[in-house]
Structure formats: C-alpha cells, structure tokens
C-alpha cells in the first residue's frame, strides 16, 4: 500500500516539461495560463500568514506565561508580552523536579535510539535494495506491513518482559523497544535503491571486497543524506515519547523530559508559570534542532514519513 | 567477515588449489549469508520488543492475571465479557471515536487546502513549509500542557477572547462535547501541517496537463482541487486517513494532561467525560490494581477495532483501484 503511494508520489518530482506546442499564439496562451496558475495573489499570502500565526502563537504564548508570575495571568486583559520572571521560574522548575537529570536522560535515550535506528536501517536497507537473497520480497512486504502495527498496544507483556529482564525503572527499558523500526528500514531501502549504483558494488566485488567492507566503505557514505533525514525524525520521535516512559520509569531521577514535565502539571492547583516554563525548556532544544535541520525533516515527511 | 577482506583479492599464481578453494568457499558464504545477517537485527529486535508483546497480549487477556498475584487462572473470554458489560468501556469507546472524528475530519480538510496553497509558486517556499511543520516539533505533552492553559476556565486566553466577543466563558473541561473539542484542537494543531506536507508531495506528482485541461474547461481553482486533485491523490488521502485513525484511537497524553495529570487525568475528568480507550487501559493496567488480564483484553479489543478500520480502508482503496 505505502510502497505504491510512494511510487506515485516522489518528492519534488514536478513534471515541468510539457509537450511542445505548434502555434505561437497558442504558446502565448499557455504562458499566460501558467502565470495565472502559479502567481499566488495577496489573499494566498494573507491566509498563509494567518496559518503561521496559529502555528506559532501557542508556542509564543507559553513563553509569555513562562516569563511571568502566576498573578499576572489573572489580569484582564491577559498579558501578551513577555515579562521579567523567566529566570526565577526556570530556577523553580529545577528546584521542583530534577529537570537537569531529565534532560540528560532524554539525550541518552534519544541519541542511542537514533544511532541504532540509523545504523540497523541502513544495514537492512542495503540488503533489501542491493543484495539478492531468497525470500527478499516476502520479507520486505513483512517490514512494510509492520509499519502499521500499533505496537503500543503490547505494553502489558512488554512491561512483564522488562520485569523479567529486571530493566524496569532503567533507561534500557525505554531504549530497547526503540532500537529498530520498520519505517527506517523501508525508508533506507527506498533511498538506496535509487542512490546506490549497482556497478559500484560489482566493481568492489571484483576487487575482492567483502560485503561488509562494501557496506562500510561504499554504502554508508552514499546513505548519508538519507541518514540525516531519518536521524532527525527518529530523534524527535524518541525525545517526544511519553506513554511508555511514563509506565516503565518510576523514580524521578530516571525520568525523561516528557515524564518530568507531566509531573509538573499534576496536583490540585496547577502552577501555570511553572508548568509552561518546563514546557518551554523541553521544547527549546527541539526548536533549535528544527531551525538547523527542519528542511531535512520536510523532505523526509514528503518522501512518505509515517508517524512513529 | 572482515577477515575475508584481505584474502579474496585475485588469487596469485603462488596460492595452492586448496587455498583457492577455501577462499572461494568463504566468498560464497559471505555472498549467501550476509543479506540475512544484515536484516536479522531488525527482525529479531522487532519480534522481541514489538510483535511478541502484542501477540502475547492475546494470551494474557484470557487469564485472571494480576501483577500482585502469582496465580494466573485461565478464564477464557471472562475478561471480554466483563469488559463488554462495563458502561465505562463503552463510554471510553464513544469518547475516543468522538474525539477521533472531531480531530481528523477538519484536520485533513484543512491540510488539503493548505497543500493546495503550497503548490503555488510562492516566495520563500521553505519558510512557509517550515512554519506549517512547526507545531509538529512540540511533544504531545507540551501541546497538551499549552492548550490546557489556553482552554482554562478562569484565566485561559480562549475564554477571554470569547468573553470579549460577548459569547461568555465556557468551562471546557466539564462538558463532554466541549472537552472533546478542546482535545481535538490539540491533535489538529499538531498534525495539520504534517499532513499538508504529505498531500503536497502527492500533489506535485500530478501531471500539470490535467490542470490545464480543467482550466480550459473553465474550472475554478477550488473546483480543480476537488474534482482533479483529490481524485488523483486518493490513495494518499486514504493512507493519511488510516494513519490518523490508528493514531487517534490511541490518544492518551492529550486527555490525561487536560485533566491535570493526576487521578482526574486518568479517569478523563470527574464524570469520565473525556476518558479515552488508552486512558481506560492505563487505569486498569497500571494505575489501580495492575489488572493485566483485564487491561490486555482492552488492548486486544482496541487492536481488533484498528485492524477492522484499516481493513475497511484497504478494501475501499481496492475498489477505487479496480474501478479506474
């Protein structure tokens, strides 16, 4: 299903060449037509600005709340500009939950998961894309089929498994289920199929290179652009994971950022400034990643990304 | 594997036939075994931490299985019978479906329109695309926390705007419909731009000639979108419907944190007005009593619902394909 989707929807493959037209006036009409179609009017830009406002405002507003004390939120009209309490609120967050530890935990989890997913996906993608072996087709279909499987529903036996392994309340329990994913394998297979010339592999074989050496010295460098895309998407998904870490982590010093953040909002009276300062601190690293690598994310999604 | 690197190069005249044979065997082994070795990590890890737990859920669901007791009594379909006669389960199913529809339908329609705008020759293309994807970067926890503040009864910005417009304040959390709308807004805000990018990719693959023909026939831009683009990218639309449905049926963080994260969050409000299926599962599995057998029955029922919906969608695509 997805395979076909992708085949019919390659990113940025605008078919720009039209068949040549005979008459000059005809051609002029075509040109005018193209101009009409592709020059967006003011209304289009206005709509896009409005969309941008709605996209950005909630994030901006969390910053506003994070920089004020709670009494300011009760004002009428509510504040829409940042205040002066940011530093104080940040200090309160670190005093309430071990947020620094949580940040470190999240970095450990996300980095390990990302490295593993990228490596194993490239390895498997290389096999599926360029090596001939019995059962390749069936196994690739199996990979694609598993992309849709809602593994989150297996939490109960997964939790029991973690008890058996004595991994509950450790970062291993969070890392292990994320080490591989079907989307990564599928994504790398698609990419390497197009980007890796078969002749390169053949000539390396002629020179006596083993398969692993071909992987290490030829495939990995070729795969780098796709690896960046996959890496960014995987890192974000791992960083934002919440349900499973919430279940399997119980002591505050093991919390990932998302779990730590959720404990801030518990309790009967929610301290809004505190909670939204935590939110801001948890989101800022991602915004930095997004600013730097956002265009890779976009190309990844447009090549058929599926939600983690 | 790396050992072979040095040897397999063209055998020199000096090497004995036995050595040559050995090298050749090693080469054949490398050729035959490598592919399986390379895909093995994925299949082993996925089977261990993904498929096995999911399948084992079915087994656990037929037992009276609690973390607190070592006896796991086989009860057949007992858990399912208890489940289907629990009004709270039906309540959770209803809430989930309601939030799913409220979140998905407007979201995908908006994504379609946005993608349509993005196909035009815009100045600063990457900028607009990034702006659209910005909400997707925030975690569900962050989104839930931020919007819970915006939808707050007393100091929320949404109520302030409504009040200024003379519409009066709404206690978003207390009402069933209003809480569903608030949660649906969180989901839609996070995913609309993401889906717009998927549609954009599909739209770019539609041949331009089709639009020219439509234009010559006097179709307006909006007509072109619904009569030309939508039919052409239908498989992608069905795909996003399936993915959004699978996601929507498992919604957890948004309602949990909208309810404040504590006990009120787990039940999805004081009168369970926004408790979803995953919250219901969490309540039974991990929040009180660790009733693993019962919670597994919930999980397996959810799985059945998801498979059913995915299958219906698949058959739907097949019909479209064969009709073309």
Main sheet overview of chain B: 2 strands, antiparallel
Poorly predicted ranges of chain B (pLDDT <50, ≥5 residues)? 1-11
Q: How much helical structure, as a percent, in the residues of chain B?
A: over 70%
Number of domains of chain B: 2
What radius of gyration of chain B results from the CA coordinates? 27 Å
Query: Uncertain segments of chain A of ≥5 residues (pLDDT<50)?
Result: 1-22
N-to-C CA distance of chain B: 50 Å
State the CATH architecture of the largest domain in chain B.
Orthogonal Bundle
Largest interface (C-beta under 8 Å) = A-B, 120 and 114 residues
Reported by name, the CATH topology of the largest domain in chain B is MetI-like fold
**Head-to-tail CA distance between termini of chain A:** 18 Å
Explain what the structure shows.
The complex is a heterodimer of chains A (308) and B (324). Chain A is an all-alpha fold. Chain A has 15 helices and no strands. Chain A starts with a helix and ends in a 6-residue tail after the last helix. In chain A, helix 3 packs antiparallel against helix 15, helix 5 (86-96) packs across helix 15 and helix 14 runs antiparallel to helix 15. In chain A, 71% of the residues lie in helices and 0% in strands. Chain B has 324 residues and is mainly alpha-helical. Chain B has 2 domains: 12-74, no CATH class; 86-323, MetI-like (MetI-like fold, Orthogonal Bundle), CATH 1.10.3720. Chain B is 73% helix and 1% strand. Chain B has 15 helices and 2 strands. Chain B has a two-stranded antiparallel sheet with strand order 1-2. In chain B, strand 1 (63-64) and strand 2 form a beta hairpin. The interface between A and B is large, with 120 and 114 residues.
Structure in a nutshell:
The complex is a heterodimer of chains A (308) and B (324). With 308 residues, chain A is mainly alpha-helical. Helix content of chain A is 71%, strand content 0%.
């Amino acid at each position: 299903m997805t395979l076909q989707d992708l085949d019919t929807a390659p990113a940025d493959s605008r078919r720009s060449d039209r068949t040549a037209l005979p008459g000059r006036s005809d051609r002029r009409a075509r040109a005018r037509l193209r101009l009409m179609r592709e020059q967006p009017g003011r209304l289009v830009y206005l709509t896009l600005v409005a969309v941008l406002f709605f996209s950005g405002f909630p994030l901006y507003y969390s910053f506003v709340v994070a920089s004020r004390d709670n009494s300011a939120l009760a004002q009428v009209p509510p504040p829409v500009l940042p205040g002066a309490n940011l530093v104080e609120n940040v200090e309160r967050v670190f005093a309430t939950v071990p947020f620094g530890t949580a940040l470190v935990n999240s970095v450990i989890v996300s980095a390990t998961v990302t490295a593993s997913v990228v490596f194993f996906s490239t390895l498997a993608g290389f096999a599926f894309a360029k090596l001939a072996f019995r059962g390749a087709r069936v196994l690739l279909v199996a990979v694609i089929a598993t992309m849709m499987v809602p593994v989150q529903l297996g939490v109960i036996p997964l939790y029991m498994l973690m008890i058996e392994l004595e991994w509950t309340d450790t970062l291993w329990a969070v890392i292990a289920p994320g080490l591989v994913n079907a989307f990564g394998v599928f994504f790398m297979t698609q990419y390497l199929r197009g980007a890796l010339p078969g002749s390169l592999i053949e000539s390396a074989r002629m020179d006596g290179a083993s398969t692993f050496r071909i992987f290490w010295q030829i495939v990995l460098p070729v795969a780098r652009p796709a690896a960046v895309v996959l890496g960014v998407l995987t890192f974000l998904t791992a960083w934002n994971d919440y349900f499973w870490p919430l279940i399997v982590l119980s002591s505050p010093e093991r919390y990932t950022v998302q779990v730590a953040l959720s404990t801030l909002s518990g309790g009967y009276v929610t301290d809004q400034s505190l909670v939204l300062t935590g939110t801001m601190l948890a989101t800022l690293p991602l915004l930095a990643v997004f600013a730097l690598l956002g265009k890779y994310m976009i190309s990844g999604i447009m090549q058929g990304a599926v939600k983690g | 594997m790396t050992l072979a690197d040095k040897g397999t190069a063209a055998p020199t005249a000096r090497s004995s036939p036995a050595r040559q044979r050995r090298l050749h065997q090693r080469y054949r082994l490398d050729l035959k075994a490598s592919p399986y070795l390379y895909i093995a990590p994925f299949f082993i890890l996925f089977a261990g931490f993904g498929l096995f737990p999911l399948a084992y859920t079915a087994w656990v669901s037929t037992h009276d299985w609690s973390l607190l007791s070592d006896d796991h009594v086989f009860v057949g379909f007992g858990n399912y019978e208890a489940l289907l006669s629990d009004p709270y389960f039906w309540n959770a199913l209803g809430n989930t479906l309601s939030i799913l529809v409220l979140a998905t339908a407007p979201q995908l329609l908006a994504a379609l329109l946005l993608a349509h705008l993005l196909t035009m020759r815009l100045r600063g293309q990457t900028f607009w695309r990034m702006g659209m994807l910005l909400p997707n970067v925030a975690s569900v926890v962050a989104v839930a926390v931020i919007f819970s503040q915006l939808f707050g009864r007393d100091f929320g910005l949404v109520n302030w705007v409504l009040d200024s417009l003379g519409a009066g304040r709404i206690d978003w959390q207390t009402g069933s419909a209003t809480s569903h709308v608030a949660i649906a807004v969180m989901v839609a805000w996070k995913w609309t731009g993401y889906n717009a990018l998927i549609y954009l990719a599909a739209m770019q693959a539609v041949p331009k000639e089709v639009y020219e023909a439509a234009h010559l026939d006097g179709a307006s831009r909006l007509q072109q979108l619904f009569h030309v683009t939508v039919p052409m990218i239908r498989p992608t639309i069905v795909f996003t419907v399936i993915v959004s449905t699978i996601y929507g049926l498992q919604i957890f963080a948004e309602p949990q944190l909208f309810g404040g994260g504590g006990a009120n969050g787990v039940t999805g409000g004081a009168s369970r007005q926004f408790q979803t299926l995953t919250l219901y599962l969490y309540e039974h599995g991990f929040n009180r009593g660790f009733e693993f057998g019962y919670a597994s029955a919930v999980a397996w029922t959810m799985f059945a619902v998801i498979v059913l919906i995915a299958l219906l969608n698949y058959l739907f695509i097949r019909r479209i394909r064969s009709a073309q």
